[in-house]
């Protein structure tokens, strides 16, 4: 079997157009959607991601407030900065770029953003809502994963899904959403201590790879006809690699294109969530 590839570029473009028109409508109604982007330290990769997010926002008409804080900021000062953004009524969404320098406690920082402005969907209240029949804010990469599955008409209900990785941004929330009462899949979470990785993968209808371990999943681990989504990123020899070996395309029925990053979906879903929260505030 040769896999069909999800058309991430076409989906991304459609999402961009949709966001442009929603932002225009909001502005006509007198609300300027405004995203505060908080960057701590000067990690070059984080800086690149943040500048891409700014470009995306500018393209659709979302205002941006970029806040760059010193690498050596204390936890208390960072919390204070976030509180200030949270109280600023001109700001409709807040994103703190991860990872934070190791002396800072990410969980506490993410909890300081009120759930109504939490565009990453990483506040504990929003995370818990992923398990319910009506999730509030779905973290952007997970929202992208869900959207590509839906777009291809793939049904999750009752399916065996393996999620490789239990990270804060992708694997953890993906497992909560897909196993929850809105999507109703049977989910197995795999991590470094998992003993039977190959067996679990081989028994799965859908595989979500979010480990950041280059080509960990090879075609012998995948059932014929499985659906495989790879969002993992690593740079083992300087160039970007996914978690899934390209030859998996010979056995899968649907797969993310091996030569494309999933980043476009993550970025477009961030815009969508910023607009969702801005619209909700008007409705509230
Ligand atoms: N394309 C995109 O748009 C985006 C991509 N990403 C990428 O997605 C991946 C996941 O990110 P994030 O959710 O932050 O997770 P983390 O990078 O924080 O964690 C990775 C997870 O994968 C597990 N893992 C790593 N290697 C292996 C292995 N060899 N076998 C089994 N499990 C393994 C780890 O297990 P353990 O818990 O035991 O350590 C951990 O749970 C990363 O590669 C990241 O770069 C993230 C955001 C957006
Ligand atoms: N609070 C927070 N929220 C995040 O959503 C978040 C984060 N922190 N920290 C880092 C990860 C990673 N992430 C990506 C965003 C865009 C691309 C992306 O745009 N990739 C390029 C290609 C890859 C590249 O060139 O590196 C593209 O698709 O064009 C990738 C990955 C969001 N993350």
From TrEMBL:
One of its GO terms (cellular component) is cytosol. Gene3D superfamilies: Leucine Dehydrogenase, chain A, domain 1, NAD(P)-binding Rossmann-like Domain. The keyword Hydrolase applies. NADP(+) binds at residues 165-167. GO terms for biological process: L-histidine biosynthetic process; methionine biosynthetic process; purine nucleotide biosynthetic process; tetrahydrofolate interconversion. The keyword Metal-binding does not apply. SUPFAM superfamilies: Aminoacid dehydrogenase-like, N-terminal domain, NAD(P)-binding Rossmann-fold domains. PANTHER family: C-1-TETRAHYDROFOLATE SYNTHASE, CYTOPLASMIC (PTHR48099:SF5), C-1-TETRAHYDROFOLATE SYNTHASE, CYTOPLASMIC-RELATED (PTHR48099). This is Bifunctional protein FolD. It comes from Gluconobacter cerinus. The gene is folD_1.
